[in-house]
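Standup, Tuesday
Yesterday: got the pipeline producing structure tokens again.
Today: sanity-check two examples.
Blockers: none.

Example 1:
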Amino acid sequence: MRNGIAWAALVILFLAGEASAEGDISVCPDVSAIKASAFKSDVTPMPAPYNAGYEYDAVTPDGTKWHGETLATKDSFLEPKYELRPDSEEEQDKKIICRYRGTTVTKDKNVVSPYLKLIREK
């Protein structure tokens, strides 16, 4: 009986921890607030086309600035066909990370799975 109660308590604690680790995506900038611009990394060992992609900036209504980048892509993922949306929020050290995912699109036999993350300092 005691073992059953102990296991149940452990499961409840584990599930509560998993739920809180997911974070609050309401702090993430709305997709409509994200602006993309072409980006090329100046990191020397990174060869083309892996050194090119997009840089993202967003400002939330409270004035908080977010920044991110994706490399090795020709798509900004902000087009409506990708249906980009906030997926998760996570706090690490002195920053908050919002991850976005969207609908996978096949284009000319290329499969594109949209993913980007925006980061802000606490």
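Example 2:
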Amino acid sequence: MTIEVNVRFAPGTVFSLSPKLRLGSDEARRWLDEQFVALGAEPMRASGKVLVADKVLAVAAAAGAGQFRSDAAWADRYAASVVAALGRDVVRVETDTSMVTY
């Protein structure tokens, strides 16, 4: 089974991640919540409600390509959290177009 998270910041800046970690959905959501706050990410909806897919996108955007490039352990934890929180094996996160597809 293929487990992969692709994070795109621009057409030429894509990180293809195959997480080594396996997390439960609660642990994954908790980690994404912590990163959302730590990185100062902003809710995307005017209502202030933050859906899991929105949080996945906001954390990647707030972290930036540099975080994915320089911290392999963080990137692996991000990818593991994304697949566990969304319950999908293959996820594409496009920060440049604000899209999450699976």
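Quick observation on example 2: Residues 26 and 98 are 24 Å apart (CA to CA). The chain has three helices and four strands.
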